[in-house]
Structures
1.
Amino acid sequence: MARLLVQLKLRLLTNALRSSSRARVGFIVSTFFALVLAVGGFLLLAMLRGNAASVDLSATVFTVFAFGWLILPLLAFGLDGTLDPATLALYPLRTRPLAVGLLAASVTGAWPVANVIALLGVTVGLAHGALGVLVAVVAVLLQVLFCVVLARFITTGLAGLLRSRRGRDLGVFLVIPIFALYETFAQVVPRLAAEGKITATAFDGVDKWLRWLPPGLAAHAIQDASTGHAGTGLLRLGLLAAIVVVLGALWIRSLSHALVAVDTSTQGSAAGGRALPFTHAGIRGTVAGRYLIYQRRDPPSIMRWCMVAILMIVTTVSTIRTPHYHIGLFISAVIGGGMVGALNANAIGLTGPAFGLEATALTGVREMRAYFAGRLIALAAIGVPLLLAMSLILAIGAGHPASWLWIAPVDLGALGAGLALSSLFTVAVPYPMQRRVGSPVPTTGDGYGGQAFGSVFGSLAGVAIATIPLILVVNFTYSLSASVRIPLLVVCAAAYGVLLGWAGARAAAATAARTLPELTQIALASKL
Amino acid sequence: MSEPAIAVLGLRKSFGNKQAVAGIDLSIAAGSLAGLVGPNGAGKTTSLSMMTGLLRPDGGQVLINGHDVWADPAAAKAIIGVVPAEARLFERLSGKELLEYSGRLRGMPAPEARTRAAQLLDVLDLAEDAKRLVADYSTGMRKKVALGCALIHNPAVLFLDEPLEGVDPVSADVIRRLLTRYVSSGSTVLFSSHVMELVEQICDHVSIIDKGKIVATGTTEEVRGGKTLQQAFIDLVGSRAHDEEVLSWLGSSSS
């Protein structure tokens, strides 16, 4: 069974690779990043050798990796086509061999191997002596096994929930706090640690409970074995192994349940009694109305706005209570605009097959302009108040509420640039999305990871460049009195943002009018 | 003779090395209820996608009431309605909102779109579910609301891909009656199906497609040639029967 499922996974990978040259590019990019993770992670952990806090930092890295395993299959990449227990439900498979097979399939691929290689950095950074290295290897393997079982347990558990529409909606909202927690671990903790804001004493507090979590057990087992406490080390490894076994047993139980669980259909209640908004304003208003309804009713859309807000907070954490708080506020505004662009950069793929309905009705540059303008208006109607409100909260948090007045113009410019880039990437780099069982949010279609990476980094970099003039103007107008400066900045920035957004929508419309059939085929290939 | 409502000339499309549609010609008169039948993978959906401006052909021409779909898509799209095989709908709109949205995209005034949406929901037996999200609709309800979206602007020509697949008999009857009424007013319907009984019952014109080529076309009587449509279809396409002796083990309970 294990061999069969590993073969299935490899076949899925090679088939995705054969499907198109784009898929090949995506695969190469994805493999490259896996290689970066493997080498970078290994070096990072290896460099901790001799560091007094090496065990604490290794434990943190192990925990971050575990969170990565927990979140990535749910959130971003849909790494594994073998995640869906329902596809195997018709076959007469016993649960235990099936579980072993699914585990083996889980560890097949570039990312799991990269994970093992990266964590093996502890054999250099943390382990001392032959016993230390031996325990380190076992601890890494157990840690990866723990991550795999945990990821499988969560996705299998959610697969049952995700069968109904309401369950899927709930799943998306579950992702939001998980994402916030992940960002805290992946961004805030390492940054504060690097800046020395997390002192050894503060870290001790974290480590007190971190060391008893499974990833902490793995790291501390290596430390114990390397410092002559082999017994304690082996005890910790034993405890970790026991946790893996218990988690595995829970997973097998949920797997056997998921294989026979009833598909719970949803009886929805009344939702859309009122007339479609803004329909009096032509195609532009109609599209804006539809987009606005989606921003409110479509859980992935709500999640995208929450992610923007979370990332704006996360980027300011290290500077907000320092004299350099304004740098954090600038970066937060740029990230806010950039993420609005990045998360909406594949509008047609995200719309999915329903775009076919729009494509049968719309044609020509004029109608496509109205379409992109409508989309722009709807996103701006939410983006402008959200970014301004987040900046205000952060400015108050920094203890300098008045600084909001000069951050607000940067928000407006960054949002305009983000929306312009999202329109451009929507038509220039469209790719299908898919919703996998086990993932409540739509993820990039197989083999299109490269395009998704390109859109995200392109949007962030583009917004950063587009906001440079604004930041310079904000800095060079200090000498003016606030009563002149602030209104001038707000009006200029708003005009700049509107101009960028408008130009982006126009350029995108011209391309969309030319390539509408091709865009439609991408949308129809989305499995949402 | 008057201009055909749908004229297809040498339409072809390949995906890589596979030729999905190998140069088809079709002529459907206005007021016709025409069926396009063929086995799975014969090229029905690909052909309909090209005829409705959703898939760019490698070659050939499609004229709808004289408007070239690929040279003048605006004029052609304005007079067609499309119901795809898998209903592509905005799941987070209610049935009422979806129909209204469809009408407004077609440039209809808002009050008229609203009125027609309500009337269509009524006729399609969806009035009670008008305020529910499309995401919570059953297959039959989805097909019906998709038909409503395709009809709201009163197109001259309607394309349907497998309109009754997965639809319960009651909903199927509603759809069938609506199509018959629509055609009786002089409009044209072309739909693909592999349910021969249905095609034989309601179509006055049939085209059979196999391996991307039209192998027979004409009135239903002509194509049937005195046989049932099912038999005529099997005779033309071939039953694809293989040597069943190799399955001698099938049905035996001994192993």
2.
Amino acid sequence: MIDISIKNISKIYVSDFKCKKKTAVQNLSLEIEPGEIFGIIGRNGAGKSTTLKMIMGFITPDSGQIFISGKIPADPDSRCKIGYLPENPYFYDNLTARELLTFSCQASGLDQKTSNQRIELLLKQVGLFAEQNQKLRTYSKGMTQRAGICFALVHDPDIVILDEPMSGLDPMGRKMVIDLILDLKKRGKTVLFCSHILNDVERICDRVAIMDQANLKGIYTKEQILENHGMEELFLKIVQQNELQAK
Amino acid sequence: MGRKLFALIFLTFKEGVRDRALVGVGLFSLAMMGGSVMVVNFFMRELHKVSVDINLSAIAFAGLLLTFFVSLNLMSKDMDKHTIYCVLSKPFSRTQYIWGKYLGIMFLIFIAFCILTLCSTATIFFIKSQYEVYFKEFSWLEFYKAIYAQFLMFFILNAFIVFYSTITTSSFITLLFSISTYIAGQTIEEVVLFLQSSQAMEMVMSKTIGSIIGIVQYVLPNLSVFDLKVRSAHALPISFEYLSAITFYCLIYSSVLLISSSLIFNRRELK
């Protein structure tokens, strides 16, 4: 079964007072296979985060359909096996990382023994074990990002959705995230993520979707990316073509 | 389902109980209660009324500060700073989110009320032991009934906070609406009674305003029914029928607000 199926979704944002319309996503269709690492890249405002939010059920598409393992996003059960990291995550200031992760495990229905094992393992993997009992308000941006990654992965989800996972991380942190994603792939998990760091996307993704101005411009496999002299070259070519067409 | 909801209730409670504003609210109300021990010395008679009044006012004021600063912060911050994503990325429905947050807030208020009740009991007990002669008419039962009625009012007020948080995008607007609702809810009965009085009959008032007030009195909660400070201070008996009626009123009103909040929130876009 396909893990994530998006069929012709569109979303137009309407500003509250002026009723000004802005197309965020237009007629987007894609399918993500189980065990695949799928990247979405695009300029700011291309519609990447909106797409992820629609998959998570935070935003409802104006038209089209989304299925996650056969379930619609409005169904809370569709999120049972999903781990999500939002862009610039912000968590409850007065909680510690351990308490936040305990909540994630309880909400996902994990028993206490498994929860404790998973929490310890992940905190060690992301390098937050020593700071696990510090309140989240004392964390730096990079530490919050690491806590967010733990929050998304602690219940061992089958589908992992990461919005800008490398944001705010130092080179060591970026390497840690890449290792985590590759480890997820080894264990047969599906990963969908957005990023602006094209080298990382090229390195770890099986397929990459390029979005520009609310539209999907193409989905490329690793081989196709190599044929086009790398991700950066391909991305710039597509964006420039799009700009020329717009003119 | 139960364990999941409990996790959200406990998360909300934990986040609220560690809010720095809570320390300020606690210290202020304890100072007010402690101050009542000194203040009663300035009165030459009816010391029990003064001490009961000050202590009940301190509890009510602490409850209001908790509601307008801590509860509101717990709801609005979720929307403002997008902490809601971390909750809704888990298998919670939006209705469960609304009820989980509300019950977490009410659990926090309940614990705060228990602590404040203990402190005010100690304060009154101390004053009573010093001035036994003035406390002949005092009734502990009526005192606790008045605290219970105050607690009920916070069920409604916090349901309004949840409701306004689901329809607005700014915590300031939620605060403004909530304070307005509190003031209107406390005074609406007096306004209606005044308009029905013989003095008001002589006034010239437009029919539109009259009918607006007529509608408003049914839409807004009548919060003055929960204010039993005067009755308790005078040790006037508060019947259990009255307490049952206001409990029923509070539960119905809060439930309607929370159901409406859930319906609205289910349609809200979390951009």
